[in-house]
Specification:
Low-confidence stretches: none
Distance between the termini: 45 Å
Shape: flat
Number of helices: 6
Strand content: under 5%
Order of helices and strands: HHEHHEHH
Largest sheet: 2 strands, parallel
Strand order of the largest sheet: 1-2
Mean pLDDT: 78
Number of strands: 2
Length: 166
């Protein structure tokens, strides 16, 4: 168990460092979803760039920790349930991410009716919150659908007594 916790913490740190180091590449990937190139996404300063990159990195680094907490507290021990929980979490992150992209697209469409080109602040895009909300949503869904349900002996006894007609 200690080895698994160590690997989880190490992977979280590795994800944090990698996502902070490659934050510009992550933002380029995110902006590839936007078809309208007449808008500029800007940082308001160097501190804004560091803060947003750090928040995105922390939200990505929390994913393995939340998954391990799900597996521990939900008592998910079967490999197929663990894999299915990872699939649920990945799908929920993708759906929340795409919803956020759709929100920004509608914001861009609202600006397209204006006579001037607009700059959109990076602090208003909230991709770090989309990752956190998607992860939490996936963890909650996985917890309630995949956890090991334990019935008390009294409940089992009561059900068997009802079935036997005593």
């Amino acid at each position: 168990m200690k080895r698994i916790i160590f690997i989880c913490i190490l992977s979280s740190l590795l994800l944090f460092v990698m996502s902070f180091y490659f934050a510009n590449k992550i933002f380029d990937f995110i902006f590839s979803f936007f078809y309208n190139a007449e808008y500029r996404f800007i940082f308001t300063g160097v501190n804004d760039s560091i803060v947003i990159s750090t928040k995105l990195s922390v939200s990505i680094a929390l994913i393995p920790l939340l998954v391990m907490a799900l597996w521990a507290y939900g008592k998910i021990i079967l490999l197929r349930k663990k894999i299915f929980s990872l699939i649920i979490i990945t799908i929920s992150i993708a759906l929340v991410f795409l919803f956020n992209v759709y929100r920004i697209q509608s914001l861009l469409n609202d600006f397209s009716h204006k006579a001037y080109k607009s700059h959109i602040l990076m602090s208003q895009l909230y991709f770090e919150y989309a990752v956190i909300i998607g992860t939490l949503l996936g963890v909650i869904i996985s917890y309630f659908t995949l956890r090991t349900k334990q019935f008390s002996e009294d409940f089992s006894t009561a059900i068997s007594e009802i079935g036997s007609g005593k």
